[in-house]
Amino acid sequence: MSPLLKRIDLMCMATGLGNGAVEYYSHSNAFKSWTTVDLRELSRAPYHDQTTSLHYKIGWNFYNRLQQQVKVNFKDMKLVESFLLEHEDVLNHSTNKPFTIVMWPPMKQTKTVPLLKELPDNSLNDLKFWMVTDAKDLMCFGENDIKLLGRTQTRSDHQYEVCAKNFTASIAQIMLFKLWSGQR
Q: What are the b/e assignments for 31-57, b being 16+ CB within 10 Å?
């Protein structure tokens, strides 16, 4: 599974890594805490922009700059450098020299994940059609709206069936742990 770069309306960028983990970055400058190898891999990832404003193109500008920097081997970007850590007390059996590990500083990801603003409860009383792009967006709804979504049958095209099941599971988790807005 390859990484994914996604610009979301919450004023941050999310990266979906190959291991399934999602990391959030509040600004494109935070990617300077990445290594060249990681940014090269990210540049090959699909990019999705969820912002609704045509004038707000920070995500696309960053993605295009990333593509340009890959072509010139990141010569215009100051990135973190890896360093070697030698363990004098542990020997590599094949070379009989101290065991060496490549290390680098931690990435500057956002410590708290931003959520959408809470919506007034009963906002979905006249629900006819719903489209959601991220299951965590459900947490902006109140108790009655979450229970309504829990009672409503979720339909999707066959190719999106996995996403629909994830959506339904997210509603069940929100109900189980009472994570709706106003309760957290």
A: bebbbbebbeebbebebebebeeeeee
Residue showing tokens 């290594």: 35
Quote the distance between the C-alpha of residue 177 and its chain's center: 23
pLDDT score for 71: 93
Give all strands of the β-sheet with 12-16 in edge-to-edge order. Answer: 22-25, 12-16, 4-8, 47-49
Rg of the chain, C-alpha, whole Å: 21
pLDDT for position 105: 78
Residue 1 scores a pLDDT above 50: no
- Residue 167 neighbours by CB distance under 10 Å: 19
Report residue 143 as tokens: 């108790």
The count of residues in the chain is 184
What's at 14, amino acid-wise?
A: A
Query: Cα angle vertex 52, ends 125, 133, to 5°?
Result: 55
Domain extent listing, the chain: 1-114, 115-184
CA distance 67 to 61: 10
36-91 pLDDT, tens digit per residue, is 888 888 888 877 665 655 556 767 788 888 889 999 998 888 888 878 888 888 88
Q: What percent of the chain has pLDDT over 90?
A: 3
